[in-house]
């Protein structure tokens, strides 16, 4: 379900899904507003949205690994956040 929350940066149209065609308008296409499963852009869209959210919480992305975020608290403690994705393309 994470991919349903990503925003697309380009315009994408798709054929109406089978069983959900609008009667009398079967030749029309659907305009996608958000990413869905099966798009090559979905993982990137989701990561961009996650990155924007986590950096707003004052985490900084590691310069060595894009999946590691570091937050230094006011007490000089560090919080490390590791993003692990099991379903990579």
From TrEMBL:
Keywords noted in UniProt: Nucleotidyltransferase, RNA-directed DNA polymerase, Transferase
GO terms assigned for molecular function: RNA-directed DNA polymerase activity
Domain Reverse transcriptase Ty1/copia-type: 1-89
Annotated protein name in UniProt: Reverse transcriptase
Annotated organism of origin: Cucumis x hytivus
Source lineage: Eukaryota, Viridiplantae, Streptophyta, Embryophyta, Tracheophyta
